[in-house]
Amino acid sequence: MEGIEHKFVKINGINMHVAEKGHGPVILFIHGFPELWYSWRNQILALASLGYRAVAPDLRGFGDSDAPESPSSYTCFHIVGDLISLLDAIASDQEKVFVVGHDWGAQIAWYLCLFRPDRVRALVNLSVVFNPRNPQRKPMETLRAIYGDDYYMCRFQEDGDIEEEFAKIGTANVMKAFLTYRNPSPLFLPKGKGFDAPTALPSWLSEEDINYYASKYEKKGFASSVNYYRNIDRNWELTAPWTGSQIKVPVKFIIGDVDLTYHTAGCKDYIHKGGFKKHVPFLQDVTVMEDVGHFINQERPDEINQHIFDFFSNFNNSPPSSSSL
User: Which of 38, 158, 177, 218 has its CA 20 to 30 Å from the CA of residue 119?
Assistant: First the structure.
């Protein structure tokens, strides 16, 4: 795709597939579920043309990167460790890098900033806010209490359960159902009821895109990527030492007003009534985009590209020209 370079880097005991393009300050793009480096295809091309080195790995368990078999190999420390090792391998000349995250990638970016703020110049995070650790209750207990056992994160907890269901539905249909989901209500996956796959794709998502995602998930399966959800409570246990810690890097946050995450219990008040800023004191801007769903960087790539460029330009001594956007 238009000069994007692909390579494998041996890091933290695994082989990681990395897509990149451009020269200059590094922007590390961290994808979510069910996604791949490919989710950032538009951002890679745009930001590379503007004087940045855009780097987008397949996280462990996704795409062409290795997938350790044990579910316990997918904690926040494993994933952040992979990214630090990647930066050491490919960008040792840059003490700090820019970071952009979405969905699980946004959660990993929060962890990266929490554990290693010394490596991050500034962060643009999409769709998932920073949730401070509640020492009184495990996250999955809270989610089950609020939404019940059919809530998608709860359905993802049992090894093999959702994988079997996805196999019956078909990988391409799973991808279509997730990537086109625009219902702001919570996502429920009652056992055995499958998905309603869309009859037509939106203009921003092609059959070619679906086929690329599906080809990688057909090869890899869903178990390793779903293992991120299976470590939610384990991450809570492991991060006890960071209870009460703040995110202390400059942050811009962007979310769509049709994104189901924006409509989760308490999220709007947390964002707009001071809670978010309390825990992320260097939060410099929150943008709520109208009529945009969860996969915001794919649905509105030009606007997201401009937001990223404008924000990161504040931290460059001589920001590149924006004439190409």
Answer: 38
